[in-house]
Amino acid sequence: MSWAGPLGALIGFGLGLLEYRLISAVVIGALRRTDRSETEAEKDDYERRIRILRWALMAMTIGLMPILGFVIGRTLFG
Question: CA 59, 17, 23, 71: dihedral to nearest 10 degrees?
Answer without folding.
Answer: -60
